[in-house]
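Treating backbone geometry as a discrete language has practical consequences that deserve illustration. No coordinates are needed to read the tokens, only the vocabulary itself. For completeness, the protein is quoted in full, as a sequence line and a line of structure tokens:
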Amino acid sequence: MMSAARLLARRLPSVANRPPTSGQIRSMGHAQSFHINTPDNRPETYFDFTEENYQRVNKILSKYPANYKQSAIIPLLDLAQRQHGGWLPVAAMDKVASIVEAAPSRVYEVASFYTMFNRTKVGKYFIQLCGTTPCMICGSEDIKKTIEKHLGIKNGETTKDGMFTLLEVECLGACANAPMVQLNDDYYECLTPKTTIELLEACKKGKPPVMGKWGSLPMNGQVSCEGPLGKTSLWEVPQPPKVDVERFKGGAVDPASVKAHMSY
């Protein structure tokens, strides 16, 4: 009797070679877990860190014991991706594996698991559009249609000039300021079709809007997650509860008063 693993292996090629339909393009977990050679992404393609980035490599490695170099896989992959224009060729993964003295497969499994790593080429501006429920009910579909119409691409595609890639993804954790996009590292929130076009045009000029004080930029003029009335609370720094420094003296804690000892 043929094993389940061998049966699965027989089925995989037909699945891998099947072209995706438009309804399948959504980053709900991660991209394809297998590598397909392309002219600019082959194991023999040259990749090495720059001299400046090797200094960063050494700084990253210094954070871990010598026998735990593999702990540096994620930050080294991130460094390689940033050096290589926002995506990771297989040669860059092999370089990281060599540096941390791990089998290449150990690095591949990390790169294929985390959605922060792009194993295929993306545009200079990688637009990740949140399409989960809070953003959807606040108009993310309109934002997606605006981007697609303005750039002439569909979800999962890259513009011909290599400037923009659009991908609808799951929750990016900015629900209070929906709808929003993550543009490379930055969050642009509270979008409308009008402000979305303004954002795209600014990027075309190489001048994306600067992030706000709190590391994101609501495009409606508000500050961070403040509502339409502005800041209404937390005008002073909250004071911590008073704690009796002698409360554990002698090492005994009465279970009946544990909440008091925990300053509840």
About this structure: The beta strands are 125-130, 164-169, 181-183, 186-189, 216-218. Residues 4-24 have pLDDT under 50 and may be disordered. Residues 148 and 237 are 45 Å apart (CA to CA).
